Amino acid sequence: MHGTFQPGDYLIIIQVPLDQVRIGDIVVFCDLHADDDDNSYFVHRIMQSRADGFVTRGDNNSNYDSGYLTKDNYFGKVIYVSRKNKKRTVADGPLGFLRAHFLYTSHKCWEDLYRLIGGSYNYLRKIKLLPYFWRPTFNRLLLQSSDGMLVKYLIKGRTVANWWPQQNRYTCRKPFDLVLRDPRIK
């Protein structure tokens, strides 16, 4: 439910009869196929109504859940979310359904864009042509600690890469990995 909820959110759930929930509502249910000792609860949105029960899906998932929501695995309906001591109502019903479709569509658009650009990005990294056209000015900051030396690469005060020579470890943020040479490679 990424996009709707964030880690650390508190969900306020009420137990309403299953026949009173509707498409677009966010519900809590358990996995009937899990071990009895394993309390696997899910918080997903109702997407369709079928004769066997309701079809659910997380707002950030591309696939529907494999099982149906029935009275046997239904726990309750999420009505509020509390984040940083601020309580807000959760979008449900038709508005919640539209929100779920918006989140899903935007997620798919980002995936498609990444797939389209991802290949080009890897190609640019492979041919190493970009450093001839883009030459940002990096500042190197050397830090000494009990764990050894750390080299930070900065642009306008922002760390874009770190190198730990003793540990032979290097990290670099995109897109700077296209122009910054990995110091481990000679």
Shape: elongated
- CATH class category of the largest domain: Mainly Beta
Can you give the helix content as a percent range?
10-25%
User: What class would the helix/strand composition place it in?
Assistant: alpha+beta
Count of DSSP-assigned helices: 1
Largest sheet data: 6 strands, antiparallel
N-end to C-end Cα span: 44 Å
Q: What is the annotated CATH architecture of the largest domain? A: Ribbon
CATH fold-type name of the largest domain: Umud Fragment, subunit A
Strand content: 25-35%
Please give a structural write-up:
With 186 residues, the protein is of the alpha+beta class. The chain folds into two domains: 10-104, Ribbon (Umud Fragment, subunit A), CATH 2.10.109; 131-178, no CATH class. The chain is 19% helix and 34% strand. It is built from one helix and ten strands. It has one helix at 93-127, and strands at 10-14, 26-30, 41-49, 54-57, 74-83, 86-89, 139-145, 148-155, 158-164, 169-172. The strands form two sheets. Strands 1, 2, 3, 4, 5 and 6 form a six-stranded antiparallel β-sheet that branches. The chain is elongated and about 65 Å long. The two termini are 44 Å apart. The model has no long low-confidence stretch (mean pLDDT 84).
